[in-house]
Structures are given as C-alpha cells and as structure tokens.
Amino acid sequence: xxxxxxxxxxxxxxxxxxxxxxxxxxxxxxxxxxxxxxxxxxxxxxxxxxxxxxxxxxxxxxxxxxxxxxxxxxxxxxxxxxxxxxxxxxxxxxxxxxxxxxxxxxxxxxxxxxxxxxxxxxxxxxxxxxxxxxxxxxxxxxxxxxxxxxxxxxxxxxxxxxxxxxxxxxxxxxxxxxxxxxxxxxxxxxxxxxxxxxxxxxxxxxxxxxxxxxxxxxxxxxxxxxxxxxxxxxxxxxxxxxxxxxxxxxxxxxxxxxxxxxxxxxxxxxxxxxxxxxxxxxxxxxxxxxxxxxxxxxxxxxxxxxxxxxxxxxxxxxxxxxxxxxxxxxxxxxxxxxxxxxxxxxxxx
Length: 349
Prior knowledge:
- The protein is mostly beta strands.
- Helices cover 7% and strands 44% of the residues.
- It has helices at 2-21, 246-249; strands at residues 27-30, 36-40, 45-53, 64-69, 73-78, 84-88, 93-97, 112-116, 121-126, 131-136, 141-146, 153-157, 161-165, 177-180, 186-189, 206-209, 214-218, 223-227, 232-240, 262-269, 273-280, 287-293, 298-306, 320-323, 326-331, 341-348.
- The strands form six sheets. The chain has a five-stranded mixed β-sheet, with no helix packed on it. It has a five-stranded mixed β-sheet with strand order 2-23-22-21-20, with no helix packed on it.
- Strand 21 (273-280) and strand 22 (287-293) form a beta hairpin.
C-alpha cells in the first residue's frame, strides 16, 4: 500500500520534471500586445560607462546606423549619408571616410560595411560599382575588388574570406548565405532556404558580428542563426503574433496597408540575454522591447526600456551589439551647440 502511495506521488513529479526538460527553448512565442510598462537596465546590465565621441565641433553625424568596436577603435556609419567615422576607444576623432565618387579609391554608395579585425581595415560594399573597397582605420585606401555577388550584408573572416548574406531570392545570385574568396570562388554554400515567393523584401539585415562568428536574424523566416566559417544553425525561431502573413508577403508590397503587424527593428545577443526591439505599425507607441532571459527562458515585453542604474536617460530606439559582453546606446545632447555624441556602454551581467 505504501509503495502504491509513493508511486502515486513520485510518478507525476517525474513526469512534470521530464516535461519541463523537454520544453523547446529555441522556440519563442511573442505577442506584442501583452506588454508591461518598462524593462529595466538592472535586469541585464551590471554597470554603465560613458565615452564621448569628439566630433571637433562638427555636426556631420546625424544618427548612427551601425557601429563596430575593435580593441582600440570605434567605426560608425552615419544614417544620412555622411560616411563612416572612426574614433579611438577613448573617443578621439581619427577620420571621416566619405569618399563618394567614381574614382578607384571612391565609392558610389555605402550599401553595407564591416571591419576586418585581423588586418585593422574598414570594408565597404558598394552596390553601384559591385565592389568591395577597403581602407585602414586612418582612412587610407588599401584596395578594391569586384565581386559578382548581389548582397545586402557581409562579414570578413580570416584570410580575406567573405561571408555574404542575401536575404531574398535573386536569379542573379542563387545563394542566400555563402562564403567566397577574393577571386569570386564559392568556398562554402550553406544550405539555407530561399524565400522565392516572398515579394515583401526587408531592406535591412541584422547581424551581431564577433571576430570569427555572427548571429544573424532572418526577417523572412523570423529566426536567429549562429554562423561560423564552418557551420550555420538556428538558435531561435520566433513565433510573432503580429507577423505579416505569408499571403500578404506574396502580394505586391505597394498594395499592403502598413498597420497591425510588426517587424524587428534590431537585436542584441549575449550568453545570458537576448534583447529585441520591434516596430509595431499603426500603434501610438510603435516601439516594443522584448527581453529574453536565456537561463530561465522567461520573456518580458514592454513599451519602454529605462536606465535605473544611473540618471542618464535617452529615447533612442537602438541598442547596438558591440560584443557578447558589451552593448551600447547613443545619448542625445540637449545642447544645440554641442555636436559630440556620447556612447552609453552597457556592461552585461
């Protein structure tokens, strides 16, 4: 009798534990309508530092589109076409790379850019010339070479190998994610699905780039993948309730009414946390923040994210990934005569 009673108690407990262990932690269900008021910095950050980027009394930088940090260098792309700005790790201005033109050392457009941390070079993909242009951190031209690829984003691995990302289907370039050398030879083609019936092209791609790997968010399939020179695998698949339906994606984008659906604005990754920011069309407060605690698998959704570590607040809607230990956010100056930009360095738990 006692044995039967014990089994009656223990078996359900074992089944419950087994069920919990079998939960698919790579699948995230997100409903942006289920929000709290705020997500607090202290939930994922242990401390903050501040670096003022000295722009030499020049207001050329309108807004930061993307930013990379090497050991002693910041490289940032201006959102409104002023080019790439280079600063030391202490904020001292180094140079501005805005060589727009058609000369061999110039570029027509900065479609995408990245850094080569092995050679300390800035690499620009110029779709107008279908070429990659390279410059030193001090702005000196290094080389240019054409590529047959049509891409949206790229990353430089060691030995001048390029990881190319094309997040939509194109007959000109039948691969979606692949690695090439400087001779346009495909070294590795990742077997990645191609969204051939998706006419709603998402212009931006999102990558959190480390030295020899990156996290890539695919806006067609709503998944985050981890990519190295040898591997590609999905880390998270996202079931967003406000996702644009497949039926609408197959229609002419001009015919789609932009309301009641959402798209990811940006994301930042770390071993313990995943922070995502969504733009929710048709909402009074369109930006929604989503914080995933990767250890507990608990997701928090909020209208705002606030700094409760010190008194410095900002309304900027991008928190940039620098590495798996540090994210950053730009602080707007309240002084119209001060053109300097302050980076709020978020040191993660």
